[in-house]
Amino acid sequence: MIEYVLYAIVLIILIIVIFIGVRAFNAGVDAKQNLKKFEKKIYIDAKNIKNVDNINDNKNLVKELRELKEMHENKFIDEEELKKAKDKILK
Question: Can you give the pTM of this predicted structure?
Answer without folding.
Answer: 0.41
